Amino acid sequence: MALNTFTGIAEVKAAEGQHLGYSEWLEITQDRIDKFAEATGDYQWIHVDAERAKDGPFGATIAHGYLTLSLASYFLPQIAQYEGFSMAINYGVDKVRFINPVKCGACISAPARMRARRCRRSPTSVPACRPRCSSPSRSRARTSPPA
Predict the structure, then answer these.
(1) In the chain, which residue ranges form alpha helices assigned H by DSSP?
(2) Scanning 21, 36, 62, 130, which has the fewest C-beta atoms within 10 Å of its C-beta?
(3) In terms of pTM, does the model score above 0.70?
């Protein structure tokens, strides 16, 4: 169940600038990293070779930056859902940087804030709204998996 439910354009507009909350924590396992490597063909040792990565710059394998970015599709529905709209789509991202590595075994979650949005009537008379949620991931290392 999402922390916030928006049932119309007025509710989306009213939420502008508000912090919407945080997703659940998710442990980044080596299995998840390996499956992402398989899906993308990115088998760089820093991601998939745990033995070699122990002596690397981070002391462990790290998640692919695009893996952590792709988890927005997992995290954001935990924070906000939209009802009464004909559809919801991922409209894309404007600016992405991978400035902090996410080590294997770390737990991450995402905060979200409703940013500037554009709402209008479409030519088909269906309301169109483009809420923009900012959601940089936050991470913390844990010695055991999340409960």
Answers:
(1) 9-14, 30-40, 45-48, 50-54, 65-70, 72-79
(2) 130
(3) yes
